Amino acid sequence: MERQQIIAQVTDIFRDVLDNDDITLTDATTARDVDDWDSLNHIQLVVGIEKHFKIRFAAKEIHSWQNIGELVDSVAAKI
Amino acid sequence: MKDFANLKRNLKKDASALKPIKVALLGDTATQFLAKAIQGAGYEYGYNLQLWEADFNQIERQVADPSSELHEYGAEVIIIFQSAHKLLGKYNKFKANHTAFAADELNGIKALYDTLASVDPKVKLIYYNYTEIDDNVFGNYANKVTSSFLFQLRKLNVLLMEHAADVPNFHICDISSVQNLVGKAAFFQPSVYINSEMILSIEVLAPIAYKTLGIISALQGKFNKCVILDLDNTTWGGIIGDDGIENIQIGALGIGKAFSEFQYWVKKLKNRGIIVAVCSKNTESVAMEPFQNHPDMVLKMEDIAVFVANWENKVDNIRKIQGILNIGFDSMVFLDDNPFERNMVRENIPQLTVPELPEDPAEYLEYLYTLNLFETVSFTEDDAARTKQYQVEAQRVTLFEKFTNEDDFLQNLDMVSVVEPFTKFNTPRVAQLSQRSNQFNLRTVRYTEADLETLAASPDHFTFSFTLEDKFGNNGLICVLILQQQSAEALFIDTWLMSCRVLKRGMENFTLNTIANFAQQKGYKYLKGEYLATPKNGMVADHYSKLGFEPDGDHWLLNLAQYQNKKSFIDKK
To answer: Are B377 and B215 a contacting pair, CB within 8 Å?
Structure first.
């Protein structure tokens, strides 16, 4: 799967979980750039991504990403 | 069932028009998501569920401190969720002999409840039981080692059940059964736990929230009371009208097993007090035949409160069943294998619960188990008896419909009445009726038990109590008359009241015959009646004129010399 496809699908998950259709994600996007992306919602986002791509992140990974680009790297490495 | 994301969306909706309920949630792990799920599920159940959530791991402090936020909040329902995970931690550090661990934990839980109840005796506690963790320190042998964690955890769940059985306001939300259903891997996600201190996976939040709301809703008096069954391919396999009684599928063989087991389930519901009705597109006699003659049928005619089989549409028939039972559509469940019928019923009676039965009858039961359709917060022996009363009333209505002539119907009921003066045995019931009867009550004079004893002993008063029993059942003591001697010629009807349960049975005629004959034998010439209007007793405004009394100022007179007994289908027992 292309990175762009992954970002597009991750964007859909963000829009769904945070209930906000205006969200646009790029590699450089961080939690500060997205309303409501707090540590609690982060868990729901991660679980949503795991479910969608049928993957599992290690406990340590979940809080290791600095931006969307790194998250997408993790996803790409697992699928 | 909505998932967590959708339950969360409910929090943005306006719930201000819904019934408010104050709930408190305390947990020994992080409960923010659970709190949102419960609030969202509250909206699904039609409540404005106001939830106060304790900070993480504050249970003992919030409960013990009389000035805590918990006590200040004043919740009607308090949910306590102590996780099996933390239980394992406590077990690991337990200093005493581990065989005493479960009992020790139970004492702590009892103490929590006792403290809550001492602050608010009406408070309802919902306690989440423990999901199983097998640490496999002993392997299977843990089952033989009373000090093992698995042994103590399971024991604690049993002790909790025993405690809940004794304490009416202590309820258990069985999240252990949720884990059994979805599996531990789906219930608990270690990476989420490590990162958030939340013990519940996102996936199980909704099932647990719904299970919790089932209890809360039942505590509010809202629960299902009736299940309506389709017959062909729902209650048995095949089509009775086409296949015939010898070819329908039921019993020990093949798919017949699925239907037999389904029927056992319905039978247990019926024995528990759930009303079972039948709604089938069939010729009635054909539809009834398996219930009467098939050796493998678990359900029999006496299990069915209302049996409706005809070729009318099911919406009308379900309305008819509802009319007979006189319970809300929102307390009824309709089970039908046919998606077309289900949709039609759903569209026309949206309050009704209509489960989307799986296509394969083999899966009916497993699916129904997951829905928790028959949550309740009480169970007494009376529940089964109450079903009997519904059945009796349904039988009367069904019989009534068979007769075009009301007299034939009344005749067919085989009614008998016990007529007695007030005694020490019936006085409590007479007093209860005197206090409670508002509608069929001519003068609404309220008497206590002591008053009634005085009247019973008075030479100027004559007292009468009436029971009514028919071939379907006994209504008990339902009518009370008190006559007062006003002169050598006239008896005044001081009290005439009747329970509305027995309206339209001709009880009025029977009662009048009884007292008129009594007065004649005693040599009186007149019965004198009076109607005193209240906001509630309009139904008897014309009572005396209907019975042939003549107006006399503010009173009504019946001339006994000309009195002829009125038509009555009730015999004196």
So the answer is: yes
The chain B residue lying nearest A43, using CA atoms, is B192
* pLDDT: which is higher, B42 or B328: B42
Provide, rounded to the nearest whole percent, the portion of chain B with pLDDT above 70: 99
Choose, out of B13, B193, B195, the residue to mutate when testing the contact with A (most A CBs < 10 Å): B195
Are B47 and B155 contacting, i.e. CB atoms less than 8 angstroms apart? no
Tell whether A44 is within 8 A of chain B (Cβ).
Answer: yes
Which candidate, B251, B81, B237, places its Cα nearest to that of B174? B81
Query: Under a CB-based contact definition with an 8 Å cutoff, are residues B270 and B387 in contact?
Result: yes
Q: Of B228, B240, B245, B212, which is closest to residue B315 (Cα–Cα)?
A: B228
Q: Is the pLDDT of residue B323 over 90?
A: no
Using the Cβ of B6 and the Cβ atoms of chain A, whether some distance falls under 8 Å is answered with: no
What is the C-alpha separation between B482 and B527, in angstroms, rounded?
Answer: 12
Check: CB of residue B219 under 8 Å from CB of residue B246: no
For residue A57, the distance in angstroms to the closest alpha carbon of chain B comes to: 8
Q: For the whole model, what pTM was predicted?
A: 0.73
pLDDT at position B383 is 67
Q: What is the pLDDT of residue B471?
A: 85
Mutate to test the interface with B, among A21, A36, A44, A50 (most CBs of B within 10 A): A44
Q: Do B33 and A39 touch (CB under 8 A)?
A: no
